């Protein structure tokens, strides 16, 4: 980046909300729960909050005030040139559970990251998830109940049946990066490196799909990954109305070890009425000579994600100091 400041992070606001759902019956459940929950959430939001039922939402006089539009297709304050289809930057959803069969009483955690003004729509999202639970997931419509809702400080928002919106605990990306670096150093028992450089392991626990030099990568490339995260930092600054310009990544650390495994995710597109298969890679890369600014970018990826297909749960990563 070359400017050595945190200004590119301090106007990106977000919160991470974790949900624990418990299945009420036994049966088959979707393997890719992030995609299934997102799809079900969108449909329930339409059922509950769409007041005009237009075939073309762009022509609806309620569009700017519509709860569904402000959650599922939250608009950029400054729209980037590379966003050509329906905007969908207000949240992302991630779930690590890939079990395909559940018994009554089994449970699943999933996380939702809300960005910018979309945080204000958390309550309608919770309502829609509650209704989705009564309808169920998957081809057998396995119903579920929301048992816990926690913020990014592990504090409960759900007490009995009441939602405490004061516990949402939003913060800026700059605050998160500062706190996360402190945690990483404490975890390893290390002080800040005298050289100002670090050894880092970056793990992708959901598939990441990155197009670089016209091709989808099938092994980890440090330049491709850093540029993909920097692109999302730029995108979310525009989402908040902050045009910082394209971020130039100046320092590329050396990869000392990496492992990548190709992974496919099947999903059904109701819009296209067809089955689809999405591809990405999971695994990790270990790096040395990671500068402070590069570490900031990598940690930002924990919040913003990386690569394509984010709305289907792709691109979730985690940083560890070595």
Describe the structure.
The protein is an alpha+beta fold and 322 residues long. The protein has two domains: 14-167, Alpha-Beta Plaits (2-Layer Sandwich); 173-321, Alpha-Beta Plaits (2-Layer Sandwich), CATH 3.30.70.1900. Helices cover 26% and strands 30% of the residues. The protein is built from six helices and 15 strands. It has helices spanning 33-49, 67-72, 122-135, 173-188, 222-239, 292-304, and strands at 13-23, 27-28, 91-94, 101-102, 107-115, 144-150, 158-159, 162-163, 171-172, 197-208, 211-212, 215-216, 254-269, 274-291, 317-321. Strands 1, 3, 5, 6 and 9 form a five-stranded antiparallel sheet that branches. A four-stranded antiparallel sheet has the order 13-14-10-15. Strand 11 (211-212) and strand 12 (215-216) form a beta hairpin. The longest helix is centred in the last third of the chain and has 18 residues, at 222-239. The radius of gyration is 20 Å and the shape is globular. 34% of the residues are buried. The model has no long low-confidence stretch (mean pLDDT 90).
């Amino acid at each position: 980046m070359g400017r050595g400041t945190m200004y590119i992070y301090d106007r990106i606001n977000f919160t991470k909300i974790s949900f624990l759902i418990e299945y009420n019956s036994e049966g088959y459940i979707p393997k890719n729960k992030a995609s299934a929950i997102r799809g079900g959430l969108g449909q329930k939001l339409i059922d509950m909050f769409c007041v005009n039922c237009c075939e073309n939402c762009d022509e609806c006089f309620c569009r700017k005030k519509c709860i569904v539009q402000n959650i599922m297709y939250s608009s950029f304050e400054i729209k980037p040139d590379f966003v050509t289809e329906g905007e969908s930057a207000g949240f992302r959803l991630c779930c690590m559970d890939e079990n395909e069969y559940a018994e009554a009483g089994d449970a699943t955690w999933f996380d939702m990251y809300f960005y910018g003004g979309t945080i204000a729509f958390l309550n309608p999202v919770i309502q829609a998830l509650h209704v989705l639970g009564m309808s169920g997931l998957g081809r057998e419509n396995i119903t579920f109940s929301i048992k816990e809702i926690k913020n990014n400080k592990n504090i409960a928002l759900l007490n009995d049946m009441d939602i405490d919106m004061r516990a949402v605990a939003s913060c800026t990306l700059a605050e998160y990066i500062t706190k996360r670096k402190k945690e990483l150093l404490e975890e390893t028992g290390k002080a800040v490196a005298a050289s100002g450089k670090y050894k880092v392991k970056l793990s992708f626990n959901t598939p990441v799909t990155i197009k670089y030099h016209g091709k989808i990568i099938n092994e980890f490339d440090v330049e491709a990954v850093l540029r993909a995260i920097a692109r999302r930092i730029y995108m979310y600054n525009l989402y908040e109305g902050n045009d910082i310009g394209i971020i130039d990544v100046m320092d590329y650390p050396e990869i000392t070890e990496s492992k990548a495994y190709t992974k496919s995710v099947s999903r059904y597109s109701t819009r296209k009425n067809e089955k689809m298969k999405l591809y990405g890679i999971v695994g990790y890369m270990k790096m040395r000579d990671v500068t402070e600014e590069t570490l900031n970018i990598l940690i930002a990826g924990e919040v913003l994600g990386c690569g394509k297909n984010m709305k289907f749960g792709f691109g979730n990563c985690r940083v560890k100091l070595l």
